[in-house]
Design goal:
Blueprint: H1 2-6, H2 8-21, E1 35-39, H3 42-55, E2 63-66, E3 79-85, H4 91-102, E4 106-111, H5 114-122, E5 127-129, H6 140-153, H7 166-191, E6 195-201, H8 205-217, E7 224-228, E8 246-252, H9 258-273, E9 280-285, H10 291-312, H11 321-331
Parallel strand pairs: 1-2, 1-3, 3-4, 4-5, 6-7, 6-8, 8-9
Length: about 325
């Protein structure tokens, strides 16, 4: 798993090469889309969530993520539907794909093979094959770059062009790898023996979700996340009893507005003053000159933190036994 994290900048470059060769069929010649729906779960779904985070401030139509079997009723002929399943056999995404097909959405598929690739071929749906043979959670860069690239080619992102920044981003992440590893070790030691609670700003929720998925799958531990300002209207009230087993991690990507900064400050006060004195806090700031660099500094730092946590807890980060067991039970009907 460490090597896969280390090679993420290379994955970004490879994803760009795939984008250059990608066949989007007649999608690029379609009339204007009225909405975008990205279906995918787990290590595949995080690509769609991060794409939404990064593109939504610039995108001229709504972006929705689907994490279940069924799709929204608004999906139709003017919908761009992106089905993303690394294995190609994710049953929820296959179900969503079939429904999008019935509702005549314009579909693009990202997968390494499986049933989804077969269905795309059979229905003359354009699809992108990404490299197989690795855990889905270690492959999200392939899908992410191509989702962003497709939306940029369609002119749905204004003047924003993230794919043009990918080479510089990859170079930046390679240069910062030692710093990310050092920050990750500090985060891992901070969390060890406690339940992590991760707070960040709404537009950076993909970072928090990614970390939650990583520490559950790699380090085999539980925790939760929430976003500011939404959690200020509900979860904040729960911080009034001793909670000595929690470790609060605040994440910043440098795009917080002035009101959100005040909210972060208040949350720091509340979590430290209105709860058990043993509660600890850690503030992790993304580094870089752009939001994209800061965002991915956080993503990769927390990826490293999850494997360091696995080591500290004597856990093998690769197996996901409970997921395998669930799939076996589902296959039995």
């Amino acid at each position: 798993m460490k090597q896969l994290i280390h090679d993420f900048p290379l994955q970004l470059r490879e994803a760009l090469q795939l984008l250059e060769k990608a066949d989007f069929g007649n999608i690029l010649t379609q009339p204007a889309f009225s909405n975008i729906v990205i279906a995918g779960l787990g290590g595949s779904g995080i690509s769609g969530k991060i794409a939404k985070n990064l593109l939504e401030p610039f995108c001229t139509v709504p972006i929705a993520n689907v994490y279940t079997y069924d799709i929204p009723a608004f999906v139709g002929e003017n919908t761009l539907f992106i089905a993303c399943s690394y294995s190609g056999n994710t049953e929820e995404t296959l179900s969503a794909f079939e429904q999008a097909l019935q509702q005549k959405a314009k579909i693009f598929v990202i997968t390494s093979g499986g049933l989804l690739a077969e269905k795309a071929k059979a229905n003359h749906i354009p699809y992108l094959l990404i490299p197989s043979g690795r855990p889905p959670r270690a492959s999200f860069g392939y899908a992410l770059v191509n989702i962003m690239g497709l939306l940029e080619k369609l002119g749905l992102c204004g003047n924003n062009n993230y794919t043009a920044q990918i080479p510089k981003l990859a170079e930046f992440l390679e240069k910062e790898m030692p710093n990310m590893q050092e920050d990750a070790k500090k985060v891992a030691n901070f969390i060890l023996g406690k339940i992590p609670v991760v707070y960040t700003q709404e537009l950076n929720e993909g970072v928090a979700i990614r970390f939650r998925q990583q520490f559950t799958e790699n380090a085999k531990m539980l925790g939760w996340h929430h976003v500011i300002p939404e959690m200020n209207h509900n979860e904040i009230v729960g911080w009034q009893e001793p909670q000595s087993n929690l470790a609060v991690l605040f994440l910043y990507a440098g795009n917080e507005n002035e009101r959100e900064k005040i909210r972060f400050d208040v949350m720091q006060e509340i979590t430290s003053q209105h709860a058990d004195k043993n509660i600890t806090q850690y503030h992790l700031h993304g580094k870089g000159s752009t939001w994209l660099e800061k965002y991915f500094y956080l993503v990769l730092t927390l990826d490293w933190a999850s494997v360091y946590l696995a080591e500290l807890r004597n856990q093998d980060p690769t197996p996901v036994k409970n997921v395998d067991y669930l799939k076996k039970r589902l296959s039995q009907g």
